[in-house]
């Protein structure tokens, strides 16, 4: 098993909203609908409930990406190739989302995977994009 590399990273403190472990999530899965809703149905947009935690320590994880695993830590980090590699060979967004879903399906050993939302962050020195998928992809393994 890989061990956590020692870093002398600066600790930043802040608050974090955690998804509440609400009893209704046992029969109604948490959801947030991003599309347009008919007039008078805005109250149906989400059933998400959060619990705010204060004074959380945030550590710089750079250099330790491979240490964290979904099964052990509840999250993991992965690098994807950039969405656009310049104007000559830019990958269309739909193709990129299909690529992400295919990766998730294979990586999670899932029966299916759907990439239904995306958020692209900054380009890092490695030339890869960090694509936030925690709320943007689901698979047969983690979505059921």
Main attributes?
single chain, 144 residues, alpha+beta, two-stranded antiparallel sheet, 2 helices, 6 strands, extended, disordered C terminus
Protein model, in words:
By secondary structure, the protein is an alpha+beta fold. It is extended. Strand 4 and strand 5 form a beta hairpin. It folds into two domains: about 60 residues, no CATH class; about 70 residues, no CATH class. The C terminus is likely disordered. The strands form three sheets. It has a two-stranded antiparallel ribbon. The chain has a two-stranded antiparallel ribbon with strand order 3-6. It is built from two helices and six strands; from the N terminus they run E-E-H-H-E-E-E-E.
Pattern of helices and strands: EEHHEEEE
Regions with little confidence, pLDDT below 50 for 5+ residues: 122-144
Shape: extended
Q: Counting H and I runs of at least 4 residues, what is the number of helices?
A: 2
Annotation, overall tally of beta strands = 6
**Roughly how much helix do the residues carry, as a percent range?**
10-25%
- What fraction of residues sit in β-strands? 15-25%
The Cα radius of gyration reads: 18 Å
Quick check: average pLDDT?
76
What strand order characterises the main sheet? 1-2
Largest sheet: 2 strands, antiparallel
Distance between the termini: 28 Å
Q: What is the SS-derived class?
A: alpha+beta
- Count of distinct structural domains: 2
